[in-house]
Amino acid sequence: MKKKRTQPRQPINFEIYQFLMKQKRAKHSSLYVFHRNRIVITILFCTGLRVNELRTITWKMLKQSLKTQYLEVYQSKTDCYRKVILSPKAISLLCSLQKEYTKFFQDRQKWCLGYTSKGSMVDEHIWLKCINNFIKPAANHFNVKLSSHSFRINYITNLLKVMKIERVQQIIGHKSVNTTAKYDRYQPKHEEISQIFDEVMW
């Protein structure tokens, strides 16, 4: 008996991100979690980070990143820190969340994104489930398979459109270029192919 092919996760583009940011708080969700989710998905959209890499980001780190225009994060998969560049548009999006920062962090410098309202670290599985539940309405609305990893898919896929795969590998922190290659879903349109041929052949 053949296994059914599961639908691959789709990227979360700007249209889907905007949909998520416009949605109202679910009745079962606290204001604390709602504000955190809005901060988290914005960082995911702007950086392409893995969702679990955000748990230990503090208000001090995030506030500093808005000045330095990069976010320094620890990658458990590669066991090292790396700098994630923030573009001007990313800075603009992150700066638009002042209300969320005030409500969630309350100017506590060492307060982590992964903290519960009582100051203990959220379990990884609960953290992931919470973010995915926030994304679920968009999956239903657009009739596509989405998860927290869809932000990373979008980020890497767009980089691969304009950069060599080896450069993208360095930017996103993959150990192997083969891992980066798995994200290469970009299929150029007929017009784009024609334009490229015209530019390189004549």
UniProtKB/TrEMBL annotation:
Record-annotated Tyr recombinase domain positions: 9-198
Coiled-coil stretches: none
One BP annotation, GO: DNA recombination
Key words of the record: DNA recombination, DNA-binding, Mitochondrion
InterPro entries, alphabetized: DNA_brk_join_enz (IPR011010), Integrase-like_cat_sf (IPR013762), Integrase_catalytic (IPR002104), Tyrosine_recombinase_XerCD (IPR050090)
Keyword tRNA processing: no
CDD domains named in the record: DNA_BRE_C (cd00397)
Keyword set includes Zinc-finger: no
Superkingdom, taxonomy of origin: Eukaryota
A Pfam family per the record: Phage_integrase
GO MF term set: DNA binding
The protein's name in its UniProt record: Putative integrase/recombinase protein
Species per Swiss-Prot/TrEMBL record: Chaetosphaeridium globosum (Charophycean green alga)
Gene encoding the protein: orf202
